[in-house]
């Protein structure tokens, strides 16, 4: 078939006819009160923001006062701008009006009415009424049960039941509307849909889908699988193809694909090949793609390439090409061209007519409540049309409603251009003209900044098969290299007594010995510090640029073997894959970040001009640094402290924690390979006595410690007690524990709060200093939150982290397990055990994840730091009390707030004094340079790692003043 451009004359002729008919009236959305409101907000981005914020929060607001309060708060956030005078008048009137509760209710009523335009109430009667109305058009329908995010298996089951009921309700109208047609999200059929665990996804989704397919078979129904975010795309396409091949008809399988993805032609080709091979016709709904902004933001946050085409014109062009491609293959595929764009539908109809396709061979699709005039014009031209009808209550369909409102009011909206701006029909029908080579906004920004400033290392994208395979292979290779034996490679072995060994074991399978590592003695610790002292002058004199280059080289080497290093962490520290990869990436970030920063701090600079003098200010290294690290971020934290010390010009003795000796060894090997001299970076595996010896040595100038409060405080004391012969004050960089809380406000988005809390509490089995161990819920949401937390937690799977099908693994040691179990026993006495998960019974050092309610602020579970998957939920009467309870802790490391009221978020920002406060997101996962990390109180000394001030702790500052006056002559005066 000829390309679309060969039909431009036909497209124009047909398009004009459609437009003539479609422009006789406006879509319902742009008429009446809704139309007036949308017209007011369309060109006013801040006001649009207010509207969306309010609609988003509305279902959870308790009463008229609450609604008025939120609306007032959102409106107040709009900045005063000179050209906003008319808006200000409008706002003042509105603020006056909402003081009256009756108006607040009107807002809710209005939103309901608006929602009903796009969403059908989910009961057979309401559906029946709508279907009868649509049948008169005539149009067929596909029904989609929209709702809140599925976070638990109960919620997934409820989603299935809704679909079963909808299917039966649609079957009642079979005579008029044809066989039932449902659209569904595969991810809503299970609470755990992870691209890293395809077998588990398949098994859970198929189990739940079985009754739906049986019903679909009874009624000859079509089930269309909706497409979701890019990260899930491959997993969804794979699963769809599996289902289509293995779940025989008469039910009809179909899938939605997005034209804004460059991947889509290849996905379509796969689907087509299978349809031909199996002889089963597969439906394809071609959409443009609804998550463009989100995909851009996510890609930018992760520094992944943008998965979408660069702009709308490129998407439109691909849409047309794929429309033609699909229509030409309507023997094997059933194309559904889903668009509200006059040109896109005209192109489809022109091609369908040339191919002489009948109404069984293709169809157009549109959403309920959108572009009715175009819909009617297409129907009048005999286009087989199906309307996409979302069902549900407004409360749960709110995300859907917001998407539609955004779509209808965006400046790029074709509906807005057609019906509000009255754009010229020639422009509406002009072929799309993508600019070749145009990068997406994100990619362009990346190119601009990459040469000039630090950028985080992108994490591995495990939704790509290749990446998962590489880690699997690395795991196999690392396992084959075990157990490792590491004698002490420290040069001065001294008069050692019989060496002590540490046996490294896999926490998920303690019988598996990973290595045997010789431990140093305190005498060797002393010798190591002396060696570092001797190495100091040369390292200190090494040019900053050279030191910085070595650290950059180390980062490169680290990333060159990132899969193996991550695999080692999976085995040695029982880190789940993604967490292990993030640890390695963070280590590389620290190396680069401090190396770059040191270059900026290197030179002398004049303090300020002072006549007759020159005042030069600069930084100098302090002397040998002892780095004492914990095991929970085995490479990143050890590497971060070490990198800062080395960049600053201080030789380092690294003392890692026992459960992380193999990881530390790998890091040390890389630093040496990068060219850091062996006397400048020494590795000293050892126990507490070695740590103490290093801290107390008179030649130690810096102690950089990260670990528990108990050890940190004892190190501060020991370091600040001068040793005989010591002639300086030791600098101690000290990061300690946390007892972090997340506050959940009455208006919080619970979908987000539940997901964020579980990720923060159970990520790496709760073994993070940033982990959430307390949730403080405002009474109005307490019960609902607790129930959803318990249900959602139950969907997480615990098992050996080597298998990515498991979300979480064991604790690090038997002692850590025993301690956590003791606290579970304490929690049972102090509060109410709401839910406890199951973990593998034999083998690893597992602790069952446990959720407690009715914990009081004075309880041990609310006060003491315990590394483990235990979460205590406390209740507060109101937000201010909740915030006060959150702060009532010895620690001040991380904290979180879920709220949609700006004044509460501002209050938290001002009053919730923790090092890292996260608003409306999880509280773990700080990234170097983006979220400098560290706390105060008993969490640390208040200067944050990965932030602008950290490096200076490894330096001291000097000022040199030179008198420039010579017998009344000032050289600079002549300049
Ligand atoms: P830990 O305090 O038991 O051990 C930390 C390090 O100190 C280890 O290398 C250990 O061998 C060494 N050590 C122990 N006793 C010593 C002594 N008397 N003198 C010198 N060194 C000694 O901590 P851990 O179990 O490895 O790690 C978990 C703790 O670390 C938690 O409290 C956690 O909150 C904290 N942590 C804090 C941060 C942060 O950035 N604030 C980050 C990670 C972990």
What key attributes describe this structure?
single chain; alpha/beta; 7-stranded mixed beta sheet; globular; binds nicotinamide-adenine-dinucleotide
> Which structural class best describes the helix and strand composition?
alpha/beta
* Unreliable sequence segments: 438-442, 444-452
Total of DSSP H or I helical runs spanning 4+ residues: 35
**Strand portion:** 15-25%
In total, how many beta strands? Answer: 28
Strand order of the largest sheet: 1-2-3-4-5-6-7-8
Task: Note down, in words, how this protein is organized.
It is a single chain. The chain is an alpha/beta fold. The strands form six sheets. Strands 1-2-3-4-5-6-7-8 form an eight-stranded parallel beta barrel, surrounded by eight helices. Strands 21-22-23-20-19-25-26 form a seven-stranded mixed beta sheet, sandwiched between helices. It is globular and about 95 Å long. Nicotinamide-adenine-dinucleotide is lined by residues 628-633, 637, 655-657, 688, 691-692, 695, 706-708, 711, 714-715, 735-738, 769, 865, 893, 934, 939-940.
In terms of topology, how is this protein built?
Blueprint: H1 8-22, H2 32-42, H3 45-57, H4 64-76, H5 85-98, H6 101-118, H7 124-135, E1 140-145, H8 153-171, H9 174-177, E2 181-184, H10 198-219, E3 222-225, H11 230-246, E4 252-258, H12 264-278, E5 282-287, H13 292-302, H14 312-328, E6 333-338, H15 342-354, E7 363-367, H16 372-380, E8 385-391, H17 398-409, H18 414-420, H19 425-429, H20 441-450, H21 465-480, E9 484-486, E10 500-506, E11 509-519, H22 522-541, H23 544-560, H24 562-572, H25 577-601, E12 605-606, E13 613-621, E14 625-628, H26 636-648, E15 652-655, H27 661-674, E16 681-683, H28 688-696, E17 702-706, H29 709-719, E18 731-735, E19 740-744, H30 750-762, E20 772-778, H31 779-793, H32 814-830, E21 832-836, E22 850-853, H33 860-863, E23 870-876, H34 879-887, E24 891-892, E25 894-898, H35 902-911, E26 916-919, E27 936-937, E28 955-963
Parallel strand pairs: 1-2, 1-8, 2-3, 3-4, 4-5, 5-6, 6-7, 7-8, 9-11, 14-15, 14-17, 15-16, 17-18, 19-20, 19-25, 20-23, 22-23, 25-26
Antiparallel strand pairs: 10-11, 12-13, 13-28, 21-22, 24-27
Helix pairs in contact: 1-15, 1-16, 3-4, 3-17, 4-6, 8-10, 13-20, 14-15, 21-24, 22-28, 23-25, 23-26, 23-27, 24-25, 25-26, 30-31
Bound molecules: nicotinamide-adenine-dinucleotide.
Residues 628-633, 637, 655-657, 688, 691-692, 695, 706-708, 711, 714-715, 735-738, 769, 865, 893, 934, 939-940 line the site of nicotinamide-adenine-dinucleotide.
């Amino acid at each position: 078939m000829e390309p679309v451009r060969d039909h431009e004359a036909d497209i124009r002729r047909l398009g004009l006819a459609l437009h003539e008919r479609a422009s006789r009236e406006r879509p319902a959305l742009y008429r009446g009160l809704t139309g007036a409101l949308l017209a007011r907000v369309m060109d006013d981005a801040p006001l649009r923001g207010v509207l969306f914020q309010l609609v988003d929060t509305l279902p959870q607001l308790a009463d008229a006062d609450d609604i008025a309060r939120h609306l007032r708060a959102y409106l107040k956030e709009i900045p005063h701008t000179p050209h906003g005078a008319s808006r200000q008048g409008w706002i003042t009137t509105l603020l006056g009006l909402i003081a009256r509760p009756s108006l607040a209710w009107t807002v809710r009523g209005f939103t309901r009415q608006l929602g009903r335009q796009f969403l059908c109430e989910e009961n057979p009667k309401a559906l029946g009424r709508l279907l009868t109305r649509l049948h008169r058009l005539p149009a067929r329908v596909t029904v989609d049960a929209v709702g809140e995010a599925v976070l638990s298996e109960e919620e997934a089951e409820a989603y299935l039941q809704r679909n079963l009921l909808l299917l039966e309700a649609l079957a009642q109208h079979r005579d008029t509307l044809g066989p039932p047609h449902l659209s569904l999200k595969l991810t809503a059929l299970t609470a755990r849909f992870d691209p890293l665990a395809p077998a588990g996804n398949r098994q859970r989704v198929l189990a739940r889908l079985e009754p739906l397919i049986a019903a679909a078979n009874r009624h000859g129904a079509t089930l269309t699988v909706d497409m979701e975010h890019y990260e899930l795309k491959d997993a969804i396409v794979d699963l769809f193809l599996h289902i289509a091949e293995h779940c025989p008809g008469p039910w009809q399988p179909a899938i939605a694909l997005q034209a804004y993805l460059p991947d889509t032609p290849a996905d379509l080709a796969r689907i087509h090949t299978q349809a031909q091979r199996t002889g089963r016709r597969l439906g394809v709904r071609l959409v443009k793609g609804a998550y463009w902004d989100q995909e851009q933001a996510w890609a930018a946050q992760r520094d992944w390439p943008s998965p979408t085409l660069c702009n709308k014109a490129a998407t439109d062009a691909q849409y047309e090409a794929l429309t033609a491609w699909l229509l030409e293959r309507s023997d094997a595929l059933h194309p559904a061209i889903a668009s509200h764009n006059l040109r896109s539908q005209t192109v489809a109809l022109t091609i369908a007519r040339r191919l002489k396709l009948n109404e069984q061979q293709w169809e157009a699709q549109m959403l309920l409540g959108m572009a009715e005039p175009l819909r009617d014009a297409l129907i009048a031209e005999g286009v087989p049309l199906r309307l996409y009808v979302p069902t549900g209550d407004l409360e749960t369909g709110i995300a859907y409603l917001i998407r539609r409102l955004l779509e209808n009011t965006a400046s790029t909206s074709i509906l807005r251009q057609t019906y509000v701006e009255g754009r010229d029909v020639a422009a509406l029908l002009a072929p799309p003209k993508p600019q070749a080579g145009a990068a997406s906004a994100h990619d362009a920004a990346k190119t601009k900044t990459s040469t000039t400033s630090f950028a985080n290392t992108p994490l591995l994208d495990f939704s790509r098969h290749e990446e998962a395979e590489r880690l699997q292979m690395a795991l196999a290779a690392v396992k084959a290299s075990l157990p490792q034996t590491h004698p002490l490679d420290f040069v001065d072995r001294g008069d050692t007594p019989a060496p002590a060994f540490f046996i490294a074991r896999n926490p998920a399978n303690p019988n598996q010995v990973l290595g045997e590592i010789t431990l140093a003695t305190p005498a060797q610790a002393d010798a190591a510090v002396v060696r570092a002292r001797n190495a100091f002058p040369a390292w200190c004199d090494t040019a900053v640029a050279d030191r910085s280059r070595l650290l950059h080289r180390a980062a490169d080497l680290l990333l060159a073997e990132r899969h193996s290093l991550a695999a080692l962490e999976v085995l040695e520290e029982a880190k789940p894959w993604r967490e292990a990869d993030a640890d390695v990436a963070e280590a590389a970030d620290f190396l680069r970040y401090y190396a770059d920063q040191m270059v900026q701090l290197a030179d002398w600079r004049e303090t300020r001009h002072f006549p007759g003098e020159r005042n030069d200010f600069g930084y100098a290294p302090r002397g040998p640094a002892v780095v004492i690290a914990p095991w929970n971020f085995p490479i990143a934290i050890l590497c971060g402290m070490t990198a800062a010390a080395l960049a600053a010009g201080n030789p380092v003795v690294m003392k890692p924690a026992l459960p992380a000796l193999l990881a530390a060894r790998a890091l040390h090997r890389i630093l040496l390979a990068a060219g850091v001299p062996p006397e400048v970076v020494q590795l000293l595996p050892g126990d507490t006595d070695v740590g103490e010896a290093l801290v107390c040595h008179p030649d130690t100038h810096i102690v950089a410690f990260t670990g528990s409060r108990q050890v940190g405080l004892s190190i501060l004391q020991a370091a600040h007690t001068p040793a005989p012969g010591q002639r300086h004050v030791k600098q101690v960089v000290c990061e300690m524990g946390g007892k972090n809380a997340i506050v959940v406000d009455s208006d919080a988005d619970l979908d987000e709060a539940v997901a964020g809390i579980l990720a923060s509490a159970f990520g790496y089995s709760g073994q993070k200093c940033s982990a959430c161990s307390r949730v403080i819920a405002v009474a109005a949401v307490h019960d609902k939150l607790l129930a959803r937390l318990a249900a959602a937690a139950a969907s997480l799977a615990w098992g050996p982290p080597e298998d990515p099908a498991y979300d979480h693994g064991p604790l690090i040691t038997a002692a850590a397990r025993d301690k956590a179990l003791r606290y579970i026993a304490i929690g049972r006495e102090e509060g109410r055990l709401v839910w406890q998960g199951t973990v593998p019974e034999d083998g690893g050092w597992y602790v069952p994840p446990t959720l407690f309610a009715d914990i009081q602020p004075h309880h041990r579970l609310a006060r003491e730091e315990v590394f483990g998957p235990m979460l205590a939920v406390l209740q507060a009467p109101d937000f201010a009390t909740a915030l006060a309870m959150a702060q009532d802790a010895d620690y001040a490391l991380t904290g979180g707030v879920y709220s949609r009221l700006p004044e509460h978020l501002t209050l938290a920002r001002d009053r919730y004094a923790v090092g890292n406060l996260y608003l409306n997101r999880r509280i773990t996962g700080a990234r170097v340079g983006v979220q400098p990390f560290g706390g105060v109180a008993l969490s640390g000394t208040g200067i944050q790692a990965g932030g602008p001030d950290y490096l200076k702790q490894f330096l001291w500052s000097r000022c040199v003043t030179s008198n420039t006056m010579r017998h009344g002559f000032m050289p600079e005066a002549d300049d």
